[in-house]
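Design request, tokens follow.
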């Protein structure tokens, strides 16, 4: 599912926003933000992203 979203984002040159509590998939994204107390905070590092096959 995540690979499909990443492929579509590249194909259509757009962002895909995913909201999740599943920490296993978080590193697959290029940019990671956290929402705490109603405010958005950017993660210090970027995720690794997935290469589409």
């Amino acid at each position: 599912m995540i690979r499909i979203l990443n492929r579509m984002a590249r194909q259509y040159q757009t962002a895909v926003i995913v909201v999740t509590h599943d920490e296993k998939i978080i590193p697959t994204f290029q940019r990671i933000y956290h929402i705490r107390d109603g405010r958005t905070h950017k993660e210090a590092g970027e995720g690794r992203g997935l290469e589409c096959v």
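Comment from the thread starter after seeing the answer: thanks! Residues 28 and 40 are 19 Å apart (CA to CA).
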